[in-house]
Amino acid sequence: MMRITILVCLVLLIMTSCRHDEQEKHEDAKFVVTSPVRKDTLVYHEYVCQIRSVQHIELRALERGYLQNIYVDEGQAVKKGQLMFQIMPMIYQAEMQKAEAEVNFVEIEYLNTKSLADSGIVSSNELALSRAKLNKAKAELSLAKAHLDFTTIHAPFNGIMDRFQVRLGSLVDEGELLTTLSDNSKMWVYFNVPETEYLDYVNRVKPEKQQEVVLQMANNQLFEHRGVVETIEADFNNETGNIAFRAVFPNPKGILRHGETGNILMPIPLHDALLIPQKATFEILDKRYVFVVDKDNTIQTREIRIGTELPHLYVITDGLQETDKILVEGLRKVKNKQKIEYDFHNSASIIADLNGLHAE
User: Fold this and answer.
1) Tell me, what DSSP letter sits at residue 237?
2) Are strands 30-34 and 341-344 parallel, antiparallel or unpaired?
3) What is the pLDDT of residues 293-308, one digit of tens each?
4) Which residues neighbour 42 within 8 Å (Cβ) at sequence distance 6 or greater?
5) Could you give the 3-state DSSP secondary structure of residue 277?
């Protein structure tokens, strides 16, 4: 009796296991199918860019002499008019004092000559000559004062100091580079656009509007402020076929510095774009295909043309319609003209699971 009971249990167990295996095989045989979806979306064109300060100038010595004082430091933020460098002024002070003395002497001569002219003792020509000598002396005084003023160098605008090219006590020549100064309150970002994309741009963007762009910094992080395209250069580069665009970005925290690099991301709106998941496609000899499910649940290979690539998605320009059903998963488990069982998933739910869709 015990043996019969054990035998019955084994038979039931085997039958249950077979049913479970059959059920699993039946479930495994079902594939996921969806349809293309038509949406308004954005695609970002990417361009390598160079970041420049809105003002970046060289500060040079205007007079020859020893560098007597440096009142700022490398990397320091300075204000417009702030004293930065002092070239030893003693020679220029002496020249100005000499010019002042000459003005005083000639002025006395002029006053004496004017008094004699008023009395009719000297001619009007003598008075005019004396006045000319006084004007000449005053001009030489102004020139001496200008040379003295050139020994002090002040910041021409608010900015950030760069590295010093000279050190305290150095003998500097007239015109010698001292340092550079950058105004980083706004940044000019230059990037090159191919001719075809330039033509699309001018047809898409109205002259009275400004195209917004995004800056991706060297660490692949997006800059927190958006910029706008301000100007386009006049000429194309005949060697590269590109034309330079300039975008301007606010830089209130001073994160961006002159000479940095990055990438400009320009959003391009696509209206009524036909989208499918990238994973629903496969490649044969540099051509892209999908499996389309017909009314008899038979899959057919169909070539498609891809217009633009988005993260996890393709924009299709030819080969599919919204009413088509395409295989999304299990592409390697099937072959052309095979009949399948499938579960249809709404395209919106599939796309919602994919990252990187910028939809409007």
Assistant:
1) B
2) parallel
3) 998 899 999 999 998 8
4) 267, 268, 269, 270, 358, 359, 360
5) strand
